[in-house]
Amino acid sequence: MTAADILIIGGGIAGVSLAARLASRQSGRARTVLLEREEMLAMHTTGRSAAIFSETYGNAQVRLWTREGRDFFLNPPAGFADGPLVSPRPTLFVARPGDTERLNTFLRENPGHAEPMTPAKAHALVPVLREGVFTGFAVEPASTDIDVHRLFDGFRRMALKNGADIRTYREVRGLQRKSGVWTVETNDGGYEAPIVVNAAGAWGGHIGILAGLGDYGLQPLRRTAVMIEPPPELEISSWPLVNHIGDDFYFKPDAGLILASPLDETPSEPCDAQPEEIDVATIAARLEEATTLTVHRIRRRWAGLRSFTPDRTPHFEFDDQAEGFFWLIGQGGYGIQTSPSISQRAADKILARL
Ligand SMILES: Cc1cc2nc3c(=O)[nH]c(=O)nc-3n(C[C@H](O)[C@H](O)[C@H](O)COP(=O)(O)OP(=O)(O)OC[C@H]3O[C@@H](n4cnc5c(N)ncnc54)[C@H](O)[C@@H]3O)c2cc1C
């Protein structure tokens, strides 16, 4: 039996960023062990994101947490990364005539973060937008691309440097609270600690059930992304992210290709999500309808599970019923961009109990 003070289940951005924050504050006192089922960290949702930082995305609470983390992305702690975590990528929101109300609400909810743009400017920014399809435009000038690999690796190295013990290929199979400690069974022996953190992403509901606490209503939703080859004569690197305000699609340049998604949200069991042909065909059709691009060649396709609580707000709290059980779930479509602030807030709550 391996003893620890805090056991974290899940080696995606949620678990690893929390391990970094806990380890940095523990001054050799609390032992943090992170258990990840796969041989590699970040191989599920964290490794499959679109790498966007947007302060207008999600509900009001999510937007606050995202904005709180902006400074971390711009000025990470010394030695955290060997280069910038973010690079500018403004977002152009496009609206069809039927989306006008939605665009107006969006602008009202995001003063200082998004502003209207004229059709002429929008078409100059993204010349492939088909004339006449979209009638309303807005821009979020300060959104960015995130270097997710660099961010994740920064948190991983910070956790290790401060003494966290990260163990891969350890699948949690049972959880029980006995005499003031949690006992966790894995494929490779037992672990015990007074505090256990459920950061298992799409499997968060499953871990809750193993602990006898139910699944918190967590719902994994599959989302598909593709990489499309642009025509060779097209200069795309300076395009913004183009986001349909009515949630039909987004696309942006990514390493010489066009990353696009049909913004699908298909309920799924937790699994190694794979793209469905219908969703790939949908994004190709929507892109051809919205732009003058012809989708000849899809270079890559993938899918990931974005997991939501019933109110679509990430949940990071101790359980009301079960002492020492901390939920860190429901990061939805914003788990990368909220990781600096949520990891800090979660660590503060946990350390206050030690
Ligand atoms: C297509 C797509 C685009 C996205 N775009 C963005 C974006 O632009 N910006 C943004 O901020 N977010 C984005 N997201 C969302 C973001 O990727 C997620 O919110 C985030 O990665 C969730 O991290 P996580 O650590 O909770 O989950 P995960 O990365 O899935 O990590 C959970 C880990 O728990 C492990 N685990 C599960 N069960 C067990 C067990 N029994 N024992 C041990 N380990 C276990 C799993 O193996 C997994 O590694 C996107 C997601 C998708 C799919």
CATH superfamily of the largest domain: FAD/NAD(P)-binding domain
* Distinct ligand kinds: flavin-adenine dinucleotide
Distance between the termini: 21 Å
Please count the beta strands (DSSP E, at least 2 residues each): 22
CATH topology name of the largest domain: FAD/NAD(P)-binding domain
Helix content: 25-40%
Number of helical stretches of at least 4 residues: 9
Q: Let me know the largest β-sheet.
A: 9 strands, mixed
State the domain count. 2
Overall morphology: elongated
Q: Provide the CATH top-level class of the largest domain.
A: Alpha Beta
Integer-rounded radius of gyration = 21 Å
Offer a quick outline of the entry.
The protein is an alpha/beta fold. It has helices at 13-25, 60-68, 70-74, 100-109, 119-125, 148-161, 204-210, 277-290, 339-351; strands spanning 2-3, 6-9, 32-35, 52-53, 86-88, 91-95, 115-116, 136-140, 144-146, 165-167, 172-178, 181-186, 189-193, 195-198, 219-228, 241-244, 250-254, 257-261, 266-267, 298-308, 315-318, 325-329.
Q: Any descriptors?
A:
alpha/beta; FAD/NAD(P)-binding domain; 2 domains; 29% strand
Please tell me about this protein's structure.
The protein is of the alpha/beta class. The chain has 2 domains: 2-79 and 147-218 and 310-351, FAD/NAD(P)-binding domain, CATH 3.50.50; 91-141 and 219-308, D-Amino Acid Oxidase, Chain A, domain 2 (2-Layer Sandwich), CATH 3.30.9. Helix content is 26%, strand content 29%. Strands 6, 7, 8, 15, 16, 17, 18, 19 and 20 form a 9-stranded mixed beta sheet that branches. Helix 1 (13-25) links the parallel strand 2 and strand 3. Helix 1 packs across helix 9 (339-351). The chain starts with a strand and ends with a helix. Bound molecules: flavin-adenine dinucleotide.
